[in-house]
Amino acid sequence: MDKKSWIAIILCVAGLFVWQWYITKTYPPAARQQQAAAPTPAPTASPEPEPTPAPSAEKSQPVMAARAESLQTDDAEFVFNNDTGGLEQVVLRLHMGENQQHVALNRSRTMPIGALGFEPGEVLGGFEMSAKPASGQVFFTHTRGDGLEISKRFSLPKDADGKGAYQVDLEVAFRNTGTQTLAVPDFFIGAGGAAPIHIHDLPLYTRFDWGHEGKMSNIDVNWFAASSVPILGIPIHGERPLYLESKPDIEWAAVASQYFCTIVTPKSGAAPKSVWAKRFEAPKLNGSPIFGVQGGLVHAGFSLAPGETGRHTYQIYAGPKELPRLRDLGTTQEQVMSFGMFGFISEFLLWSMNGLHSFLGNYAASIIVLTILIKLALWPVQNKATNEMRKMALLSPKMTELREKYKDEPQKMNEEVMKLYKEYGVNPFSGCLPLLIQIPIFFGFYSMLGVAIELRNSSFFWVADLSQPDTVGHLLGFPINVLPIVMAGTMVWQMVITPKTGDAMQQRIFYFMPVIFLVFCYNYASGLALYWTTQNIFSIVQLYLTRNKPLPVLEKKSVIAKREAAQAKKKPKKR
């Protein structure tokens, strides 16, 4: 291999390490939180009589004593706050977080779920609260000086112990109690905030998602940070304090962490006209500063005649990213799973894994069995590819002669090599077919295991949690993750026993694959390393079984054709 090739390979591997460090490093201490107040659009006026504009937000709110009320199901506890008139946090009874505490969504409490305001991030306060826990309802009222009364009703759906265990219905009403027409300005309903639940949760999963036209758009929390070219430090853009997008047919908005989400879906009233999101500094995890994201749906302003009431209703889901539950929400909310371009594969793998778990009772065993079933299905393809690779290995001396003969004529050399393949009936790309099939499966597993709530707190021998790296200790501050190391070792073993094809440089490049996969999977969910290790071991066994078979006969196609023709002549003709 020449010097340029070595330099290119070293730079690629170094780049992978830099990227892995970048996405897994803890955030530096948070800089001063920037506030961005979007200008309040002009309210929609009615023709007659001339409306009295309502102020966009009251600068001073009455100070109210802290008070909380809860609505509970078997799966969740919904905690409400009187002043801000919203859902302060949602405690998930079936899911444990850090320090053996129940997972609490919106625990940062920067903006309640279902909060109302007139400028992004600025929540209207001063609500009075009353609750009817027996009927599963909480009421809020707020009356402004101009006669605008804002009321909210949060209620548990009737099947709160079934499919709607993590759902709350919200009704928002605006009533004009004055004697003049009021112009209500644009207002938002907040989806609360989301931040990493676990110290190892990847920041790329802390996102603001929203649906429109049957598809999803999203940003992650890194969108707000200043960006520059790695290593060189050339700035790309500065900090971005506000994300704001407008569409005519917005269906829902959500804030999400790696395994949980809060989704607000409008059910009646005028459709939202835009969405917004901001970044905030969340409570530290084990002393490490982190960021979260909050956002909401923006509705266009409207006019209210004296005594008139305008209503909007919403469905709120605050719970785990469980595909069946998200599908039951009725629109396209399941897209918060973010399976990517191989989503159909991820969904099939998730369905298969859960189906196997219903029989085996263990998710690690389900991953292993699912991997073996996939490898068994690909056995004929792998066998054919291995046989072709052995033929390629037999052709290696002839190819070496051609390369030496035409070393100064690369175009001629390639032509002669292709003639050689054709003459002996060898397909040089057949050995790549199993890899081409496995790559979509790998990325399907990668996307699925990264958000599969089922793997949280699922153990396997020394692995305490299949959704986290299997760290067994630290060496000089660097985590020792066993499964990715075993995975890389089995990849090297597989490459050693695989029939060698191609030139020496190509073979050396392939030996960097274990390094690339090691970097790719090292700090990812250990369930992914378990899958790839299992498939490596299965492939090794298959290669040993294939290697013990007699070597294939390398014959020219013309010789094979003559022999087949001779055999055909010897066969008696049917009468």
Q: What keywords describe this structure?
A:
33% helix; alpha+beta; 2 domains; six-stranded antiparallel β-sheet; 575 residues; Beta-galactosidase, Chain A, domain 5; 28% strand
Describe this structure in words.
The structure is a single chain. This protein has 575 residues and is of the alpha+beta class. It has 2 domains: 306 residues, Beta-galactosidase, Chain A, domain 5, CATH 2.70.98.90; 191 residues, no CATH class. 33% of the residues lie in helices and 28% in strands. It has a 9-stranded antiparallel β-sheet with strand order 8-9-10-11-24-20-19-14-15, with no helix packed on it. Strands 7-6-13-22-21-18 form a 6-stranded antiparallel β-sheet, with no helix packed on it. A 4-stranded antiparallel β-sheet has the order 2-3-4-5, with no helix packed on it. Strand 4 and strand 5 form a beta hairpin. Helix 3 packs across helix 7 and helix 8 packs parallel to helix 11. The longest helix has 27 residues. The protein is elongated and about 105 Å long.
Distance between the termini: 64 Å
| Beta-strand share of residues | 25-35%
DSSP summary, beta strand count? 26
Task: Give the radius of gyration.
Answer: 31 Å
Tally of helical segments: 12
**Roughly how much helix do the residues carry, as a percent range?**
25-40%
| CATH class category label of the largest domain | Mainly Beta
The gist of it:
This protein has 575 residues and is of the alpha+beta class. The chain is built from 12 helices and 26 strands.
